[in-house]
Amino acid sequence: MVSGDVVSSAHLAAFGAASAPGVTGGPGCGRCGSVGAVMTPVRQVVSKQFTAYSRWLDPGADTLCETCVWLYRNRSLRSDIHLVRQSGPTLDVLTERQLAQLLSAPLPHDTAVIVPSRMGRKHIFADARWGHIAVDDAQIPWTARDVGALAAVMRLRQAGFSERHLLDPAPDYTVLRRLPSTQWQTVFEDWRTIDVWRTAPPWWTVALRSATTSS
To answer: Distances from the Cα of 174 to the Cαs of 9, 12, 160, 177, 205, in angstroms?
Structure first.
């Protein structure tokens, strides 16, 4: 456990106390390097198919600390949307609607959000950083520009455009013609607003997950 990082703060929020320290000079945790009173063999925690060793502090280590064991064994951390705040600290599971509400403003520097893919196969929580949203293989900031683009996605979803439609370079006419003509200009403007996200998979993942509630 590394004091103050997202994972250790989440663990502290979940259990109300930090893991007990171990004997100085004892075997360190492969992921974070800390030495705890209870250390668990790596092979009892992660499978042979695990591939994220390159992001560990010591990929060749044989043990993991209590915090990192919790990180890798807790299925919810791999499948649910989470919000971690330094103040407290706090750890919350979010619905898609709550995620959309949170991202209606820029992300504060003391906050981390973890948005797993719907398959929930990767341990992206391990890579979470303050002031960023963790998605598959990326950690992205969330700025005022992103807030505006997400609002455009939400409006388009509410207007009846599907996730597949939003990937197209122009609005689908079969959907467009069902809308009042007075709304068309807004649709075209929103379509242009999200152009940049169509080639930015991490932002696109977050946008579509947030807009699920608008479909």
So the answer is: 49, 51, 10, 6, 25
Record the tokens describing residue 86, joined without a space: 């330094």
Residue range 191-200: mean pLDDT, rounded: 94
pLDDT tens digits, 58-77: 999 999 999 999 999 999 99
Q: Any idea what DSSP says for residue 21?
A: B
Nearest to 101 by CA among 154, 179, 141, 53: 154
Domain count across the chain: 3
3-class SS shares of the chain: helix, strand, coil, % to 5: 45, 15, 40
Distance from C-alpha of 1 to C-alpha of 21, rounded to nearest angstrom:
9
Q: Which of 48, 75, 102 is the last residue of a domain?
A: 75
Domain residues for 165? 144-214
At residue 10, what is the residue type?
A
Q: For 33-48, what is each residue's pLDDT tens digit?
A: 998 889 999 999 998 7
